[in-house]
Design a protein that fits this description.
Length: 308
């Protein structure tokens, strides 16, 4: 569905994407993760055939976006990060008029609108103005609109940003059903739990390059441990710094990360780590053992500092 070989994107002297190789296969959910400025949005715009490639080779649905842009865009669905709905129109007309842009006959558009309103659970809001919808409803309507042309490939840029947990889970369920129906999904997200839930494979981008690729489980196995023991000692516990405390437990895991409020000890047996911490006479105020997550991998690969 997507084949990128050495793809680059430059804006003047600034190189946003520095030569990436990506393959996305039919029917899978593929994720692009990365901090702000990593090159995700530039990559998505090239895949959407709205931004030309500066170098390398890109094929979308087997076609060259530099030559076959209109044909590619006709088979894509795009859900942008910000809702771009027509506030002057009601829910149904938002879908109907957008469908007519694709040249779909009136009767067929009307039938597809009915199907999509059912799919995104907005039948009872068909005559409502967009302004009256909740954030979750607007996102579902935006996704419905992106499906009006029955795309082979659906691009989703931060699909659940700003939504409450209930709305996020409803959207996840809709997207999972789309994947089951054979639609290929390409997702960018800052929510690591979302990437774990939705993505079959993903890449982590940083500073215009791909720094890791694989399934969520594979990436966790490659770049982290099975469990993480979180030790909270409080500020200046026992008159010691967190760096000093970290030295005392450094041999208990594969690595120890020092945070302002706690130590993270990465190990395959978090309970054993905590037992040995107590054996050494250390008394953390609170402890927690959890499994390693994609967020642990993401922060290890891209760092914890903010990117301007």
């Amino acid at each position: 569905m997507i084949s990128a070989k050495g793809v680059r994107k430059s804006f003047g002297d600034f190189e946003a994407v520095k030569g990436i190789d990506v393959e996305v296969h039919k029917g899978e959910a593929f994720g692009f993760l990365g901090p702000n400025g990593a090159g995700k949005s530039s990559t998505m715009r090239m895949i959407a055939a709205v931004s030309p490639v500066s170098g390398g080779e890109l094929r979308i649905l087997g076609m060259d976006p530099a030559v076959d842009g209109p044909a590619i865009r006709g088979r894509l669905g795009v859900c942008p990060q910000a809702d771009t709905l027509d506030n002057e129109l009601n829910v149904r007309d938002n879908l109907y008029i957008y469908g007519r842009y694709f040249g779909i006959p009136r009767g067929e558009v009307a039938s597809r609108v009915d199907e999509l309103l059912e799919f995104v659970q907005l039948v009872d809001k068909a005559k409502s103005k967009v302004e009256a919808l909740s954030g979750g409803m607007k996102r579902r309507l935006t996704i419905a609109r992106s499906l009006i042309n029955r795309p082979d490939l659906l691009l989703l840029d931060e699909p659940t940003t700003g939504l409450d947990p209930q709305a996020r889970h409803v959207l996840w369920e809709r997207l999972f059903r789309l994947k089951q129906s054979g639609v290929t999904l390409v997702i960018t997200t800052h929510y690591m739990d979302e990437a774990e839930q939705l993505c079959d494979r993903l890449v982590v981008m940083d500073k215009g390059l791909i720094v890791a690729e694989g399934s969520p489980l594979t990436l966790i196995r490659q770049h982290s441990t099975r469990e993480v023991a979180e030790l909270r000692f409080g500020v200046a516990a026992e008159g010691q710094t967190h760096d000093g405390l970290a030295e005392k437990v450094a041999d208990l895991g594969e690595r120890v990360e020092v945070l302002p409020d706690r130590l993270l000890v990465y190990s395959d047996d978090g309970e054993e780590v905590i037992a040995k911490v107590h054996e050494r006479g250390l008394q953390p105020a609170a402890v927690l053992v959890r499994r390693s997550t994609l967020e642990d991998v993401f922060l290890r690969l891209t760092g914890r500092t903010l990117v301007d």
